[in-house]
Amino acid sequence: MNNQPSGLMLAGVSKRFGATHALIDGHLHLRPGEVHTLLGENGSGKSTLVKILGGVHRSDAGSITLDGVPVNSRSPRAAMDLGIAVVFQEVLTAGNQSVLENVWLGSHGMFRRRLGRAGQRSITRDVLSRIAGEVPLDLPAGQLSLSERQSICIARALVRRPKVLILDESTASLDVKSRDLLFVELRRLKAEGTAILFISHRMDEVEEISDRVTVLRSGRSVSTVDRSDLSIDRLITDMTGNSGHDQTRRLPHDPGDIILRGTALRLSPASAPIDFELRAGEVVGLAGLEGHGQDQFIKRLAGVAAGPGSVDRILPEGDKGLTERNGDDLGVAYLPRERRGESLFESMSIRENFALPTLAKDRRGGLLDTRNTARRFEAFAQSLSLRFGAGQDAISTLSGGNQQKVLLARWLATDPKVLLLNDPTRGVDIGTKREIYAILHRLSAEGMSVVILSSEIDELVELVDRVLVFRDQAVFAQIDHSNLSTESIVAAYFGQKSEVHT
Ligand SMILES: Nc1ncnc2c1ncn2[C@@H]1O[C@H](COP(=O)(O)OP(=O)(O)OP(=O)(O)O)[C@@H](O)[C@H]1O
């Protein structure tokens, strides 16, 4: 008779990377039939723990058991064989392979053969319809949206019917509809006895789905809290070791002169044209269900997407056309949504990734003064609480949230007049998010204008002067500061106009 507790038990698990102690004495009990959230600041060790469970890293010390049986996965396949399925933080799909092939990528030949092609199709259709709606199985994955590609990664884990399902920030790339569908599916799996380890920096999600929450701080498990005792303040205190991260809702204020103007911008041939004016010191939010035009709109403002209509940067001495090439010279900075591919240089160091567009600031008589680069980087690293080993380390050694902070620092360092941010705090912990909001509040008070596309409604309510909500490739509603609330934004998402919308 096995007296070991059922589920996944971790005791004293630790892992070092060179001088970095990523995980120290990690403890966790994940029970069958629960959603257990792992919460912690960027770099606190969550992904390291997940990668140990998923057979990507080997722990240096400690014990892990599943239903009393030692887990010592030497590879992702070994973990899978034990019934542990992990959806990793980055969206990992092969763009030129079909949706169907992507879902079955990496599974055993035997397992696949047993099901046959027809079986694979029907299981995939069934799983995807539950978590993402209709997705064409034969389309190359590269043609799908980020959210749909993430749903493929989740489906890849689900078709294997795991005992333990681990979702490492998997919701960060999902649109609202798919996230809601996933939560319904998680509740169903939970009722069937699946043990679910959930990681997210979004407190609304943590509150909604968690049965228990374990907090990691600097690689150590510091507390485990039951759903009935959940309080955001308590969780933040456990995460940070102090309680200094107060919410700071933006106050109404008078913006300055027009600094950027979009005229008759059309996001699709049939959609209504959009006129848009951005004033100095304004912070404007863009929102909407995924695929409704807000992403295209911010890309048009940034000059990285083309289409009918024009975007003009209004300079004090008069109008001047904005082109893709001179956007930076005109003080317009754009932070794209996808870290990989769109903005990170994976073969470069942390400091190089930060400094690339601003190296001219470090030239002295034609020579590069790297000490100056280091000084500039250090200042941003401090204000954004960047957790890293050394500036020369490869960017890939940083946790996901810390990579995002380096990119934000890169564009803040250009001293932009207009900062265009495409979902900038995705993967950033709540303490740092609030530090970023404070920085943006300060810079906008000094006259910088910000356009921020965010999938996080609380972030918009806290940060912006007004929100444009997109539907069907057009602006459906503009919600002004005095009417900003979670309810008013969500109502507009789903096409409900109330009298508060202008
Ligand atoms: N391959 C690696 N080489 C060197 N250091 C690493 C490596 N992987 C992780 N680290 C370091 O280990 C620490 C923990 O990182 P980890 O990715 O586990 O954090 P996290 O809690 O998942 O953060 P985030 O919320 O940002 O995803 C960080 O300091 C990170 O820089």
Automatic annotation (TrEMBL):
Pfam families: ABC_tran. GO terms for molecular function: ATP binding. CDD domains: ABC_Carb_Monos_I, ABC_Carb_Monos_II. Keywords: ATP-binding, Nucleotide-binding, Repeat, Transport. The keyword Ribosomal protein does not apply. InterPro entries: AAA+_ATPase (IPR003593), ABC_carbohydrate_import_ATPase (IPR050107), ABC_transporter-like_ATP-bd (IPR003439), ABC_transporter-like_CS (IPR017871), P-loop_NTPase (IPR027417). Residues 8-243, 253-497 form the ABC transporter domain. It comes from the Bacteria. PANTHER family: CARBOHYDRATE TRANSPORT ATP-BINDING PROTEIN MG119-RELATED, GALACTOFURANOSE TRANSPORTER ATP-BINDING PROTEIN YTFR. This is Sugar ABC transporter ATP-binding protein. It comes from Arthrobacter vasquezii.
